[in-house]
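#struct-pred

JT: dropping the chains for the assembly here, can someone run the whole complex?
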Amino acid sequence: MNSVQSQQTRTSQRLLRKRSAINAVAMVLSCAAAVFGLVFLGWILWTTLSKGLVGIDWALFTQSTPPPQESGGLANAFFGSAVMCGLAIVMGAPLGIAAGTWLSEYAGARRIGMVVRFVNDILLSAPSIVLGLFVYTLVVAQMGTGFSAIAGAISLAFIVIPVIVRTTDEMLRLVPAQMREAALSLGVPQWKVIVQVLYRGASAGIVTGILLALARISGETAPLLFTSFGNQYWSTDLASPMASVPVVMNQFTASPYESWHTLAWAGALVLTFFVLVLSLLARAILSRNKVRHD
Amino acid sequence: MTSIPVAPTRLVTQARRDASADRNFRALVVLAAFIVLVSLIGVAFSMLWGGREVLAGQGLGFFFSTEWNPVENRYGALVPIFGTLVTSVIALLIAVPVSFGIAVYLTEAAPVWLRTPIGSAIELLAGIPSIIYGMWGLFVLVPMMTEYVTPWLNDHLGALPVIGELFQGPPIGIGLLTAGFVLSIMVIPFISSVMREVFLTVPVRLKESAYALGATRWEVVWNIVLPCTRSAVIGGVFLGLGRALGETMAVAYVVGNTVRFSASLLEPGTTIAALIANDFAEATDSYRSALLLLGFVLFVVTFFILAIARLMLMRLSRREGVQ
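RK: done, full complex below.
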């Protein structure tokens, strides 16, 4: 009796040891995976920082893109990026907010609403180069004007729209139903309920969506390659090619010139900084809003 | 009866104005939603329309030919399609286990105070523009591949019988393997944050019951968390695959941009997105048509991958709604 019992104990102890060994291995591996991910992502940030800081000076923001081997800056590219991103937001945000409003307030859980939501989610992660091709055939090839800043802005707007549709839809649905009912029962027409009550309640979320969309498009290169193309000089003409930071970075990186590489990394650093600040800002706005609602 | 009292008239016109404003507002938002719906169809058809010249000229042979000769106007899509698939598969082979590890670490293994900072750091890094991944690949990873990795692979894996051919190649650093690796670094934040989010939806009492029965952390992850979230985890992987297939700038510098079929992963190749990005702006009309048709192929493939991903993710949220 005693020997059977001790044998059972031994077996179960062996099993326990095996299980804890497997567990230990799995936990060490998961920790290693986290370290692996963080090391590479940190490495990329470090490369951007160390190679980019060299090129950060006053000229970067005051002079236009130079010919090879000469000194200069990215002023025309910063200006072009700001113009095109601004236009994209101006075009995309109202459309996105309107479509998100329809999804949340009119379509609800109806089938057609689900279809639009599904299509929007696919547009959200569709390859951006494909949107560039779309705008090329739609605007650049059809209008006969050739590459233009406005075409670049339109292609960026197609990236802005799905981001804003989604956040608007989600944020409006978070507004308590009592707010709608209270306003409607006072006899307020529905459009006024939406514009003056719901938008106000969801404003932080909608602004977050706009900031995230801006962060996303400010680094987009692929859709601009054959819509806004690029311009070596300072240009304010929306109907002609315009420089932008990512496209200039693309051109300079592919070149063999050291001075262009330095400028490309400086642009990369400014871009990364801008994007990270925007995402942090978006998070801060959203979390502050969350606390207030609780 | 000729004069109607003043006050009711004002109310009536007010109501009428409100009603028409409501109708207009509704029409406005319906129009916006319609534009979203139409733009997806527009994207697909504009590229098919742009590619009609090559499609009519070469028919379905376009999809099965490896010849790519813009000078003689002969285009075959097989090499860029092959390159796109191979780089994406390499990316997933690396990114899926690593992302799973990160998600497990962030939900089960890490000390609680570390979870939020590491989680948000990884999510923030998903926002870094893809061109920066490409530049890092070109200036940092390619020299390392040339110096250390390619010779090592040649010596150790290149001699193996079946898979050896995959790892034989010149030490130039650019090629499908490098591109796949850069892609994997890029999609890790996407996949790991989806996995982490879906792991967090598993009811705590299920996990606690398993712990109370003496399960180890790994057993809880493998036998409780993963079965609960399987469809959404697959959805997250497909979302990453959709990203990897269509990614342009992270790949364009390191893939080599050579439209030539090669069995080795160390030889330069190309992907659909990289080929379009490199050649489209300077292409002739018929070459443009071929590239647009390639873009159509890319869009259709990513559409199906992303549709599967969304359906898988929706299944989890629907079940959550029931509970």
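JT: nice. The domain at 60-293 of chain A is CATH 1.10.3720.10 (MetI-like fold). The two ends of chain A are 62 Å apart (CA to CA).
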